Fold this sequence. Notes:
Elements: E1 4-14, E2 17-26, E3 33-37, H1 43-59, H2 64-68, H3 70-91, H4 97-112, H5 117-122, E4 126-131, E5 139-142, E6 146-150, H6 157-170, E7 181-185, E8 191-195, E9 205-209, H7 218-223, H8 229-240, E10 245-249, H9 255-262, E11 271-276, E12 288-293, H10 307-314, E13 321-324, H11 330-341, E14 345-351, H12 355-363, E15 379-386, E16 391-401, E17 404-405, E18 408-409, E19 412-420, E20 425-428, H13 435-443, H14 447-466, H15 472-484, H16 486-494
Amino acid sequence: MKESGLIAKYYVDAYKVRGQVTIERTTKEFVPIYVLKIPEVQPATLALMDQIREKILAEVAIKTAELLEPKAFEDLKIKFFERSYALLRRELTNETDEVWEFLAGMLVNEMLGLGKIELLIADGDLEDVVINNAEEPIWVYHKKFGWLKTNVTLPTEAQIQNYSAIIGRRVGRQITTLTPLMDAHMTTGDRVNATLFPISSFGNTISIRKFRRKPWVITDILENRTVSLDIAAFLWLAIQYETNIIFSGGTASGKTTFLNVLLPFIPPNQRIISIEDTREIQLPRFLHWVPLTTREPNAEGKGEVSMLDLLVNSLRMRPDRIIVGEIRRGEQAEVLFEAMHTGHSVYATLHADTAEQTYRRLINPPINVPEPLLEALHLITVAFRDRRRGIRRIFQIAEVVPAVKDGESKPFINVLYRWNPAKDSITKVKKSIRILDELKLRTGMTDHEFKRDLKEKIDILKWMYKKDIRTVDGVGKVVVEYYFDPNKVLNVVRKNQNPTLLIPPSLLKV
Length: 510
């Protein structure tokens, strides 16, 4: 066996700083090593960069809004880069444009970002970046190779805490010895959790769950076989006609991603309120959407805005659809199910591995939803992650069927579709007892019209996949056109015509 071996090699860029990534296997380590290499900077140049950093921070006033708003933050980066570049060019007269740009980019990443960690965040093949303490290297979760140890370290525990505080301040969160736990998100949308010693016994930690820069759309998950055409069309119909759905699954199984993928099927003339602890929901810009986010109390214990507060408040905002990031507590769930009973269409995520487990979690502590309320829930979709093969699949689609036993309401789960891991296919398990009849009742469609509607949706999805429509706005535009003029869309689809007949070219650009 070789002492070491190269598994993969590629490059990543973070604001003018290019790094080389190699993934290497060695007998000295239990896992492959993610090696990040960037050009070495001489001590004298580093000292000069420190002086330039101090000079820029002293002369450029930073407004709070520039740190909070993504567009303003990008403009601030440009301002810092241009000033850094000008000063470096004046001080290092014998260097090239390439070197000046590289050094200026490093300064921007350090002043407005997380230094070398920015290169890890910029790597599109990574899903997670985690810092366990200052004594050991940073770890990353690679889409293809799983958990990898890196050659990147942070010098001190204070540096880790400083990075946590920087992330928190930008979204109105704080992390201190009194509040040693923090959930937040970065301007890129990446989700961050941080803890401080001694809550985390080995040292301060930061866990970054990366947010996909190009949002997943229905054609992406059709291509990777997460879901079949039949089920995609069925769920499109269910979303269109306002059924209530819970998206469950294990950690990193793709439940929130799947929810995001289906939301463009909501008609654009309906008002949507989303409620989350940290922002993960990402809707297309053409939808009538108001995102709400919780807020932690300040050091004096004041100013908290809980998910329950937002949920109760959302009912006064005239919503047609309500989206809840994750159900965790009984009060949230009870208000959520009351919203279903009062005619609002509701979607939420929940940690559970099967439809049956989802039901049990809802009716048992700590959530404790009264069983009669569960009759308002129509569907449960369960996402699954096969770690051995590195794939994600929709594991189950189930309906909640109202029933009465011994004079009491006892809804039960009827699994309609289940993934077969041996064949890697999603197959029908049982006939619908509730959802198809309810959809027909809501729409007034006959059996023939219902089948025709599903067939139309399958044809449109197949056409979008063949035409490689991979943007949220592109998919959304086709759906909107279909709602307003179905014959026009079906004519384009059945003649296999160019997408630009329905979608402006600007909406097709990734």
